[in-house]
Amino acid sequence: MGENAAKKYHHHQVNDLSIDMVPQGGSKCFDDDGRLKRTGNFWTASSHIITAVIGSGVLSLAWAIAQLGWIAGPAVMFLFSFVIYYTSSLLADCYRSGDPATGKRNYTYTDAVRSNLGGVKVKVCGLIQYLNLFGVAIGYTIAASISMMAVKRSNCFHESGAKNPCHISSNPYMIMFGVAEIVFSQIPDFDQIWWLSIVAAIMSFTYSGIGLGLGIAKVAESGNIRGSLTGISIGTVTETQKIWRSFQALGNIAFAYSYSIILIEIQDTIKSPPSEAKTMKKATLLSVVVTTAFYMLCGCFGYAAFGDLAPGNLLTGFGFYNPFWLLDIANVAIVIHLVGAYQVYCQPLFAFIEKWASERWSDSQFINKDIEVPIPGYRPFNLNLFRLAWRSAFVVLTTIIAMLLPFFNDVVGLLGAFGFWPLTVYFPVEMYIVQKKIPKWSTRWLCLQILSFACLIISVAAAAGSIAGVVLDLKVYKPFKTSY
Questions:
Q1: What is the largest CA-CA distance in the chain?
Q2: Which residues form the Amino acid transporter transmembrane domain (predicted)?
Q3: What pTM does this model have?
Q4: In this predicted model, what pLDDT tens digit does every residue of 18-30 receive, in sequence order?
Q5: Residues 421, 455: contact at Cβ < 8 Å?
Q6: Domains in the chain, CATH or no CATH each
Q7: CA 287 – CA 263 distance, rounded (Å)
Q8: Residues of the chain with pLDDT > 70: what percent?
Q9: Burial of 2: CB neighbours in 10 Å, binned 0-12, 13-18, 19+
Q10: How many CB atoms lie within 10 A of CB 445?
Q11: Cα-Cα-Cα-Cα dihedral sign, residues 315, 183, 266, 351
Q12: Residue 318: DSSP 8-state
């Protein structure tokens, strides 16, 4: 839309010989690429990242630390935070090709791969990225329904005086979440959901804070810190289960940190000067420090409170302890956060499909024409029929798959494993090597390759653990019959 606006604007200028404004870097209305001025800053970028990072992943961290123990659990979390910060900084440098201040912009992750690496890697990257975004949408639908059911069950449990087991089907709640996403998915562009990101970021602090508070209260009440140095003990689980669960825990922690997948898209909303990379690195540092502090507190206090029995989802597993109203607030905050996080993750996928369709069928009115819908007291809303149809179909599909596969921990672990190495480590490292012309076999090149290989091993192990978990779940599973 920005480029079209620039072209139209230029056309009027020639005919009317009016004001001297050219869509160049110095223009008040346009950036150096002819698109409308970007307005994002350090704070909006940070809120997008925190919305993307402190997602439902935080709720599985007490369970992950319970599998790994007091030594390996926090150590792995610190390791992941360092890797994520480092590779995100490498990726931020790839937003512009060539000069960091004036080089050609790459609007999406795939564009950055195309500019720096090219060839078949572009298709591989696109496939992994969009499959991962699709998977995240399914994972968030599952997580939101579990939280909605937790509210219903805690109230039911409270009213019956703990006499009623209160089994509920997850399907109606997934459908309710899907309906909300159909409405919000009509927001046209990534830069127009900044307000949704800020609301979601506030909600993530709310429920993480409540989870942390409940963990601290439980530790204080019992007066002892549970858990062990090596994690869940053999006997509670078999040796094989211990290995698979430890691997799955790696995937859960990887998922809790994954946002590199949409980093370039977030960076494309930032205004300059200073250079977008500089602002993005600052936003990344703040976000990673904040999220790591939260993760350590939530994961460690959850483990200290429950020990080996730490639930897969901290707030729904806290389940039916008082104060039940506080748990309800936390779970409502999770649902509101996930509504926003779903949009933050899906906007790049929506934009990709719409751009492809627009180029393929450039003459189609259905795909390219916007209908102005008047809203009293506001500016008209631009409704696009293709956007309405395709985005609604996408939400319906993710909701149906979520209803078929409602295994929160295993899905989270699998998504973390699938996206972590290629998108968070491999592509940023390879692009950075090309961009900075780092010579092959130099010390820096070797260090980057060792980092990449180590993360590949972690990804493979985490995927194996999560697949083993899904296989176990499927043995006792009936489609569309899941109740908690």
A1: 83
A2: 39-471
A3: 0.76
A4: 333 444 444 677 7
A5: yes
A6: 1-37 (no CATH), 44-475 (1.20.1740)
A7: 12
A8: 85
A9: middle
A10: 14
A11: positive
A12: S
